[in-house]
Amino acid sequence: MNIRRVDLNLLVYLDVLLREKSVTRSAEQLGITQPAMSNGLKRLRDLFDDPLLIRTSTGMTPTERAQALQPQIRQVLEDLRGIVQPDITFDAKHSKKVFRIMCSDYAEATLLPAMIVQLRELAPNVILDLLTPSDVSSKDMEQGKVDIAINRFNEMPAPFYEKIIWTDSFSCLINAANPLVQNWNLENYLKAHHIWVSKTGMGIGFGVNPEKSGGLGWIDQALGRMGKKRQITIFTRHYSMPALLAMNNDLVATLPSRVAIMQSDNKHLVLKDPPFDIPEFELKMAWSPLLNNNPAHKWLRQLTLDVGLKISSTLEAESS
Questions:
Q1: Per-residue pLDDT of the chain (320 residues; tens, 9 = 90+)
Q2: So what's the architecture of 3-84 in CATH?
Q3: CATH superfamily for domain 98-162+285-319
Q4: Domain 98-162+285-319 shares a fold with domain 170-279
């Protein structure tokens, strides 16, 4: 095939078609008519000698060839954007851009305060729109409607880029009057009543099943590998709650160390290392390939990483 005869617009069409899985929605996204989009799909089928999208009872379903092509097409388009995009820098000081950031309660408590201080200093007119994981879907992320997502992701869909901001361990908060303070061991930990707190991923979360400890996250999975199980009395998605709940002298809150350390000055609470090994986890930043070469987006990503590194360095210095 002579590459000069290939219409590069068809690759844009294919990228949108594979994302939307609908001729109508793809046409709307590209601002063209539905017949033009249908004609584009016909030309794509001829070009690749494959149906690419097949109508099924659940809608338009990509063929195996189309699924294999999707990441390749995405990369080609991204490379082209990088080539033709003007070499400009982001004027943070004068920008009035709105950055939409999806962040977990954990990230909002530990990372965002320092990040906002930096933003106010370096980009005083920039506006932040902070969203919760329940506000955002993977599709919103893929389409670039959200600039970055900051969370502890169990797994990341293939199209997204990601960077590790930091790693964190786990600590336990208990009331200073709790008898466990003087008898801190695994046996007594398991006899206690516990507060479970977590929210990872994106989309609306539904109630947990206390009987299915394997789906409850790092802490309970670590216990499960030992053949153990804790008694969870309270389930919450907010990291601001455990410290308050731990004021009850019969409750234990096991939560990320960076959150627990924030309560270290509370005379009513005691910070303890878990009486068993829990693997560390990673706080990650993820974003759509559509935004990867955007100058403003690059600036925001670097700022996020710089703030994360500064916080980590401060904590390391204080603990040494």
A1: 556 667 888 888 998 898 888 899 888 888 889 999 999 999 999 989 999 999 888 788 999 999 888 888 888 887 777 677 665 688 999 999 999 999 988 899 899 999 999 999 999 999 999 998 888 888 888 888 899 999 988 776 667 889 999 999 999 999 999 999 999 999 999 999 999 887 555 554 444 555 554 457 889 999 999 999 999 998 887 777 767 777 788 899 999 999 999 888 888 899 999 999 999 999 999 998 888 888 899 999 999 999 999 999 988 877 76
A2: Orthogonal Bundle (1.10)
A3: Periplasmic binding protein-like II (3.40.190.10)
A4: yes
User: Angle, to 10 degrees, between the axis of helix 9-20 and the axis of helix 64-84?
Assistant: 130
Helix (H, G, I), strand (E, B) or coil at 6: coil
Residue 232 buriedness (CB in 10 A; 0-12 / 13-18 / 19+): middle
Distance CA 215, CA 213 (A): 5
**Structure tokens, 227:** 């053949």
